[in-house]
Amino acid sequence: MTLGQKLKQTRLARGMTQSQVVGDRITRNMLSQIENDLASPSVGTLEYLASVLNVRLSWLLADEQEEAEAGRTQRLRELLKSGEYAACLELAPEHAPDDEQALALAMAAAQCAQRALESERFDTARHLAQRGLAWNNGSLYASAALMLHLWDILARCAQSAGLGQEEAAFADYRQAYAAQPVRARYHLAMARYQLERGKTAAAEAELRAVPMPPEESRAEYRVLQARLASASGRYAEAMTALRQAERTGPLPKLLERELLQAMELAARELQDYKTAYECAARQLKL
Fold first, then answer.
1. DSSP codes joined into one string, 214-262
2. Which domain holds residue 117?
């Protein structure tokens, strides 16, 4: 929309005639020329017109591209606030987004990647996490917590995919974490990594670094505690921790599978074959 079109459209929307707008400041003929894009008004005249029409001067001066980008940013804010993360990603521009857009897109990508990970769609999760890192790193408002969340997803994807890339992925995760404040998510991921390598002492040290896990990580924390207890032959203790984790409510598919595997193992060692069978059957339904 041109400057003249904006002025005319706004004037008509306000129900004002040209004579009412011009007052004693400019002539009606001049306003007509401006509205038809036949004359270029001075900044002083634009300030006057913006005041009379009750619009922002910046809006009058903005070109179509700037208006489109402002609209994109506002829409991203709305979608992010309402939790419509996939819809946010559909608004990603072909060109480099501005700083606010980049952070919003990175946040949306992290949420979508986390959901993909929990649904065991590892390729999708990895792709989304990589996009999220690129957007976050390219924003003036880059978030350290968001960066670690995305590295966590990439490390978990590498570990779950079983393609021999977990060493490099966790090395990258460690490097990203090195200069950051302590995060429970990091220690839980590392505890799981050490457990699967048979390094129980190292896994125990990682869990000790999270004495008070945040609420959203408590179920995962208890599952890892249980796995550590089983690795040390403390199967009754493991079963108690797993029951506690199960009672926290619906679990993501990935964590539920880990819990059921650990519970099946502990039940077999405790000779509770009924529970072991039930856990195996539930895994098949996932």
1. -GGGHHHHHHHHHHHHHHTT-HHHHHHHHHHHHTT----HHHHHHHHHH
2. 65-180
